[in-house]
Design brief:
Blueprint: H1 13-19, E1 26-30, E2 32-33, E3 39-40, H2 43-56, E4 59-63, H3 77-81, E5 95-99, E6 109-113, H4 134-149, H5 152-173, E7 178-184, E8 187-192, H6 206-217, E9 222-223, E10 228-231, H7 239-256
Parallel strand pairs: 1-4, 4-5
Antiparallel strand pairs: 2-3, 5-6, 7-8, 8-10, 9-10
Helix pairs in contact: 5-7
């Protein structure tokens, strides 16, 4: 764990306020928790943190490495979460980190800072081996161009609604295995039911056991905590692949049931 952080419950504004001390300089969150269980921030939490940071003169920082770059159907997850929410159009964090999907597979990381903080990090004050590479930046610009040309954000929303509907159908059909769907856009989670009998003989977490069975069946995915299986499809997912993937997931769920 990176030193200097106090860890608090997610989506709990009171906990954030209680954790502030005279030494606190910033609050840092993900817009949608990835490793933490595919949990989106609520609109109230985001707006409340912004107001709290303004009140206490703290920076509000967001890690968008996993939930950013159109994965939720908007460029950044906070834009999707705050759609149509009064005051949401004015929301901005003070700093936001990006990487991975920014280059569509080519190594790149980036950090955005809001005025009046944008000029505090001049060239050389924040060094990194791969910082500022023209090739990576050219690739990232082309990736943005392709995303816009192929209308991938709209596709993410359309497919996401269908996939979440399929997961919820599994939860209704096989309630002893699947509890519910989680997340939004293409950062989704399958929340597993408690005490699945087929997993009782192993000390491994249910999510790991489920993921191992999916791997054996031909679907690549990863766990997010003990009870959540994370689905992170590519933005250019095709209907045939989505249907095949969900059919395999259902076959594994059916075996467990």
């Amino acid at each position: 764990m990176t030193p200097g952080f106090r860890h608090i419950p997610y989506n709990d504004l009171a906990a954030a306020r209680a954790a502030i001390s005279p030494a606190t300089v910033a609050i840092m969150i993900e817009g949608v928790q990835g490793e933490g269980g595919v949990t989106p921030a609520t609109a109230e939490y985001l707006l409340g943190l912004r107001a709290l940071c303004d009140e206490k003169k703290l920076l509000l920082l967001m890690d968008a490495v996993q939930c950013g770059h159109y994965r939720t159907g908007r460029f950044q997850s906070f834009q999707r979460i705050l759609e149509g929410v009064p005051g949401g159009e004015k929301f901005l964090p003070d700093g936001l980190s990006m990487a991975k999907s920014l280059g569509g597979g080519f190594p790149i990381g980036a950090f955005w800072a809001r005025a009046p903080y944008a000029d505090l990090l001049s060239a050389g004050t924040h060094g990194t081996t791969f910082g500022g590479t023209p090739l990576a930046c050219a690739v990232a610009l082309k990736v943005l161009e392709v995303i816009e040309q192929e209308k991938l954000p709209e596709q993410v929303r359309k497919f996401s609604d269908w996939i979440k509907g399929e997961i919820d159908r599994l939860a209704q059909t096989y309630p002893t295995v699947v509890k519910s769907s989680r997340g939004l856009g293409f950062i989704l989670g399958i929340e597993l039911a408690d005490k699945i009998p087929a997993f009782a003989g192993s000390d491994k977490a249910p999510a790991i056991q489920f993921v191992n069975r999916l791997h054996a069946a031909g679907v690549m995915t990863v766990p997010a905590g003990a009870q959540i299986v994370r689905l992170l499809p590519p933005l250019n997912l095709k209907w045939q692949d989505a249907g095949e993937g969900m059919a395999i997931i259902e076959s594994v769920v059916k075996q467990l049931a």
